Fold this sequence. Notes:
The protein is of the alpha+beta class.
Amino acid sequence: MFNMKVGNSTIHPTKIICLGRNYLDHIQETKAPIPTEPVFFAKTLNTLVTNNDPIIYPKLLYENPNYNRVDHEVELAFIIFQPCKNISAVKAYDYIRGYTIFLDITARKMQISDRNIKLPWYRSKNFDSFSAIGPEIVSCHEIENPHNLKIQLKVNGELRQFSNTKHMLFKIPEILEYLSKFITLKAGDIVATGTPSGVSPIKPGDIIEASIEKIGTIKHEVILESD
Ligand code: MG
């Protein structure tokens, strides 16, 4: 069983599901169409790191001018509390253990070039250390409304992303109802709800600080993959 310590909690995720294109301002900056139903994709468990772990910039990307852009995306994630399949939106919060910060690190040039030839986002999203979570999982009792939280990201102290979770196109109950039609979510599974605008490149040596109101801040140094 896969173990992950997040602050004072230990979770056993079996999968990471992410929403794409869930904030209007981010959809506009990527010139993507506005979705009429949630766009989701999976990340693999090898990507997971937690607060203060380094984010590894892959040499494969760094040394190739066709691929040398890696972006940060700060997101609110929720952690599944109990198995759920075919649940209705009104019951959604019974299935959520709590909330955490999620960094969806993305090999942007690779993602765009793959997309242009109709390949999936799989490669560009799943390098080691490309999903950071933490610093804690904050329970649903402490965050009664996850759709009114300030969310921000700084690189080397400079504000790059700043928004509020109220701007999500698809809200958490709707997301869970939709997802659970397709797959069974299990306790510990991680669902990330998409990023607002302001995504921008990171490089080795950068310090990323991602914060969400009522949850805290995660801090990560970007390092170049060693030989
Ligand atoms: Mg994302």
